[in-house]
Amino acid sequence: MTLFQPSKGKSASRLEVIEALRLLPERVGEEARGLSEETLRFRPAEGEWSLKEVVGHLRDFAEIDQERLRRMITQESPFLPGYDQETLVRERNYQEADLQTLLEELASFRRHTVQLLTELVDASWTRTARHLERGIFSIRQFVELLVSHEAGHLEHIRALKQQATARRKAS
Predict the structure, then answer these.
(1) Distances (CA, A) of 56 to 75, 124, 143
(2) pTM of the model
(3) Following DSSP, what letter does each residue of 133-170 receive, concatenated?
């Protein structure tokens, strides 16, 4: 099963986008299960992220966007500042982190986000926020952006696995 991608075809229902968010930690875990530490730490080029670092970024993204969503629900048109994802991944040193811990933290943040979204009444999905880089958007648009972003990183994880495998076979 692939994650819903809002840019493809008709608009998905609220439940479909919530389900896509709910499934991400499981999908990431499935992709990472059984991989060697060498594969998890493989960086295709200088300055690019390893699979562990992508998972760390997804963990950060889930934490930050959970807070952004909470602000959208409780405040009137809040300003949502951007953040430096590269700096955060580097400062938190995800290359040395325990993958299982990262997956558990991602799942925990995601459970809370799904709960927030599940409890929202239909009208609240039109509440808006202002983002430094993306401008004004609704909760609905925000959640679709989350799903699309995460689907892209799931593909990124698959590509990293393939690149690591190809490099190991060439050695």
Answers:
(1) 28, 30, 20
(2) 0.90
(3) TTEEEEHHHHHHHHHHHHHHHHHHHHHHHHHHHHHHHH
- What average pLDDT values come out for the chain (171 residues) when binned by 10 residues? 43 89 96 95 95 97 96 96 93 97 97 95 93 93 94 96 88 73
Is residue 3 situated within a structural domain? no
Angle (CA) 71-72-75 rounded to 5° is 65
- The encoded tokens of residue 28 equal 């990431």
How many domains in the chain? 1
Beta pairing partners, 136: 130
Would residue 4 count as lying in a domain? no
In a domain, 100, yes or no: yes
Instruction: Sheet with 135-138: list strands edge to edge.
Output: 79-80, 128-131, 135-138
Total residue length of the chain: 171
| CA–CA dist 98, 96 (Å, integer) | 7
